[in-house]
Specification:
single chain; 9 strands; two-stranded antiparallel sheet; about 260 residues; 7 helices
Length: about 260
């Protein structure tokens, strides 16, 4: 996890922090801190905090929806293309969440993931369940928020087929302070390509997780999720396709701005 913003330095578990004030973002930013040229987009005047941002799949969607983005993560994320703070995400949300118009958090999913409940159940104790504490911190900030996590309340479930992507990647989305209308869940057209129980299957969808067994290559994952700024395997396997959060961000922005006009 990670992120930061605010006038005071972040008290984090890491010493590598970046001080940042949301209101001082460069709204005409033409390129990222990593040198990746950010695409043109309309600016909606709002800011979003992406907690546990990793390499920024969710952040890119919010950026394309018009938000200025700050990411926070416990680990350094050298490929993250927006303003970044390294530190404890829950602490950061508690201290600075109220400074943003919207908060997104993809709290670590290992605790609630299917593989941790089944095949690797004996390893589950290694993964803390951060969702309850993270949700409490977001509520205390008093801002609209989004949680993407296997333990999230499924207000909306998104799938790559909804956005014309050759990937399934179902994600539960919990929202408070606003509520999205979900697109139709397009019927799956076939199987995910790869090996299952000793047999190889072809299909229109790629498996963007793990290695071997017909799993997607880095280039295939980049194309399937429309992520170009990183070619690091584990960053791609953890990423949310930006189309998901662009869809969420456009609706959230419209509701936030409408509420301020009333």
């Amino acid at each position: 996890m990670s992120a930061e913003s605010g006038s005071a330095p972040l008290r984090a578990q890491s010493t590598a922090t970046v001080e940042h004030v949301p209101g001082q973002l460069d709204h005409s930013q033409a390129s990222s801190r990593t040198g990746y040229p950010l695409p043109a987009r309309p600016w909606n005047g709002l800011t979003v905090l992406d907690a546990c941002c990793c390499a920024g799949g969710a952040s890119m969607g919010y950026y394309l929806a018009g938000f200025d983005v700050v990411g926070v993560d416990i680990r350094d994320q050298p490929n993250y293309p927006f303003a970044f703070v390294q530190g404890d995400a829950i602490d950061y949300v508690r201290e600075h969440g109220h400074e943003y118009d919207l908060i997104h958090a993809s709290w670590p999913c290992q605790y609630g993931a299917a593989i941790s409940k089944g095949t690797n159940r004996h390893l589950r104790h290694r993964y803390p369940n951060l969702t309850p504490a993270g949700r409490a911190a977001m509520r205390a900030a008093g801002r609209p928020f989004v949680i993407e996590n296997p333990d999230a309340r499924p207000d909306v479930v998104l799938c790559g087929t909804m956005f014309g992507l050759p990937i399934l990647r179902h994600r539960k989305i919990e929202c408070e302070g606003w509520f999205p209308l979900a697109p139709p869940h397009t019927k799956h057209r076939g199987r995910v390509r790869g090996h299952r129980h000793g047999k190889h299957y072809e299909g229109p969808y790629v498996a963007a997780y793990g290695r071997g067994g017909g799993k997607a290559t880095v280039a295939e994952m980049q194309r399937a999720m429309r992520i170009e700024w990183t070619d690091v395997h584990h960053e791609l396997t953890e990423a949310i396709p930006p189309a998901y959060t662009q869809f969420l961000g456009e609706q959230a922005a419209a509701q936030i701005l409408a509420s301020r006009r009333t």
